[in-house]
Amino acid sequence: MKLDRTDRKILEALQEDARLSSAELAERVSLTTSPCWRRVKRLEEEGVITGYQARIDPERLGYQVMAFVYISLDLKNVQSLQAFEDAVMGIPQVLACHRISGRYDHQLVVVAEDLAAYGKFAEANINSLPGIKEIYTSFVLREVKSTTNPPLPAA
């Protein structure tokens, strides 16, 4: 999709603060409210804007541990991959799951209250996922950068 300068300004403003009112957003991008609202609706309909979320600090909710869990499956057929992915979808502590290339088949991002809670969680949830051959876990020592928004393309 081709984004013009105004589309990029709208996306930048919403990435910075998705709680802007239509009037505030329009003022920031130098449009009147109606054309700005139409552009936002078009960006939503075309799938550029996929949703609006509040960013929540996991530590404030008591999650002191974040882990990257790498999973290798016994079988790599469509049914095995789908069974694993379907099972992961039902685990709230798994914040993200990516099918990846290389030695492992999937990377999970998992949160837990502490290391002991992670151990119990892994035994009850990760180890019981279907078709697992190997698990490798790395714990986050310090988050340096975290964003879900890609950089906007240049004009």
Structural class: alpha+beta
Question: What overall form do the CA principal axes indicate?
Answer: elongated
Percent helix, as a range, is: 25-40%
Q: Count helical runs.
A: 5
Main sheet summary: 4 strands, antiparallel
The succession of helices and strands, N to C, reads HHHEHEEHE
Mean pLDDT figure: 95
Q: End-to-end span in angstroms?
A: 12 Å
Low-confidence stretches: none
Could you state the oligomeric state of the chains shown? single chain
Radius of gyration: 20 Å
Q: How many β strands by DSSP?
A: 4
Strand order of the largest sheet: 2-3-1-4
Fraction in beta strands: 15-25%
What features would you describe in this structure?
The protein has 155 residues and is α+β, with helices and mostly antiparallel strands. 36% of the residues lie in helices and 19% in strands. It is built from 5 helices and 4 strands, in the order H-H-H-E-H-E-E-H-E. The chain has helices at residues 5-16, 22-28, 33-45, 78-89, 115-126; strands spanning 65-73, 94-99, 106-112, 132-139. It has a 4-stranded antiparallel β-sheet. A hairpin with a 6-residue loop joins strand 2 and strand 3 (106-112). Helix 2 crosses helix 3. The longest helix is centred in the first third of the chain and has 13 residues, at 33-45. The radius of gyration is 20 Å and the shape is elongated. 13% of the residues are buried. The model has no long low-confidence stretch (mean pLDDT 95).
